[in-house]
Each structure stands twice: as structure tokens, then as C-alpha cells.
Amino acid sequence: MKIYTRKGDSGKTGVFGGKREFKDAPRIECIGTLDEVNSTIGLLRSKLGNDHEWQPNLHRVQKDMMNMMSHLARPSDSKKENQNPHPTDGAEFCEAWIDEMESKMSSPSDYFLLPGGNEISALCHVCRTQVRRGERTLVTLSHEDPESVLDYISSYINRLSDLFFTMARSEMDKHGVAEEKWNLFLYKRKKKPQA
After folding, report:
1. What is the C-alpha separation between 171 and 176, in angstroms, rounded?
2. Which part of the chain is the Cobalamin adenosyltransferase-like domain (predicted)?
3. Per-residue pLDDT tens digits for 102-159
4. CATH no. for residue 21?
5. In this structure, are residues 140 and 147 in contact, taking their beta carbons and an 8 Å threshold?
6. Residue 62: how many CB atoms within 10 A of its CB?
7. Cβ neighbours of 39 (radius 10 Å)
8. Helices 90-103 & 151-174, crossing angle to 10 degrees?
9. Which residues lie below 8 Å from residue 34, measured CB to CB, with a gap of 6+?
10. pLDDT digit string (tens) for 17-41?
């Protein structure tokens, strides 16, 4: 079987259930952005090496991303059911991992940071910003087809950006790389005394 079908030459692509949508439709934009995230996670994993402690969790995230993309590809009016698993505990999984990493760091997370540090932490920030873009496209899709954007997907994607921020900090902390701080988080800023 050939990898190319020529069916997409007209600017449309197939979605779950057999319908075809334009390649710039919100659903396709959303799935494509999350696919970019998944590819960047793959690049991050290749830089980490096979024995790195993050590998099992990142492997799980990649598989969860594939499952979520498959469910987002199913329009809510599709009669065909998607049998792929629903990673409904994704947000909790991210929170547990974030808490574990933060418990081992030498300082709390109080500041917006300039992305960078070393190659791994910079790649974590690339993942973080791509996830944020994916979240924006998810919101756009939810306006068009609210029932196809399940609550657990929104929560998981939202938590992933926090996860990659924490991973960037963890990597820098582990290697003694100083954070380039910008501003305190808004909720951490002290109120000015009233005159």
C-alpha cells in the first residue's frame, strides 16, 4: 500500500467516521497543532537518551496524545464509535509528576522565566508553548463542536503546559543552571501599601 493517496490534493482531509473537512478547519488545525507537540516531545526524548528517568512518563504522554487526537478527529455527529482509550486521568497524572519534581527542586516556582537555560530546558519550553497554542485551537474547536472536546482533554492539555514548565525548571535545577527571571507571578506580587 502506498503512503500517498492523492485524496488531499484538493485541500480536504478525512476525519473519523469518513467525513472530509478542509485542512484549515478548526478540527484539523487543532489536531495538527497537537501533532506538532507530540513530534517535539519525540525530539525531546531523543535528546534525553534511552535511560533517562523521564522516558516512561513521556512515552505515556505521547500515547495519550495520539488517543486524544483520535477522539478530537471524531465529529460529535458521527455514528461510528471510536474504540481508542480515553486517558481520563491525564490531568491528575501531570499534577502528580509536577508535585514530585517540585519536591526535589531547591527553590519554588514564583517567577515568569525567560525560556532557555540548556538545550533540554529550552526544548521543554518549546513543548510548553506549542501546548499553549494547541490549547487555543482546542478552544476554537469547542466553539464549533462543543461535544467533541471532552472535558478531560481540555484539562489534560492545560496541565501539560504546566508540566513542561516544571520540567524546564527541574532540568536547570538539576544541572545548576541559573534561571533568568522576568517578573513574579501576578498572584505572588505583594500589594502596594495603601496611602
Report:
1. 9
2. 3-170
3. 999 877 666 666 777 799 999 999 999 999 999 999 999 999 999 999 999 999 999 9
4. 1.20.1200.10
5. no
6. 15
7. 13
8. 20
9. 65, 68, 69, 72, 134, 137, 157
10. 557 665 778 989 999 999 999 999 9
Query: Which sign, positive or negative, has the C-alpha torsion 6, 10, 12, 14?
Result: negative
Domain membership of residue 99 (yes or no) is yes
Say if residues 137 and 97 touch (Cβ distance below 8 Å). Answer: no
Within 13 A of 55's CA, how many CA atoms are on the CB side?
8
H helices present in the chain, as ranges:
26-48, 55-72, 90-103, 119-144, 151-174
By the 8 A CB rule, do 113 and 181 touch?
yes
Quick check: is 26 in a domain? yes
